[in-house]
Amino acid sequence: MKTLIIIKPHAVKRGIVGEILSRFERQGIKISALKVLRVNRERAE
Asked: Domain locations in the chain?
């Protein structure tokens, strides 16, 4: 089973992405891939 995790922009600005990912790992979720995208309004629609 795979799960998509989307981290919101305010978390990136606050610099807490690592902490968020660590919380998932502590819950036993293995992060097998990571992709960082900058999504503009056009791409989101």
From this structure: 9-44
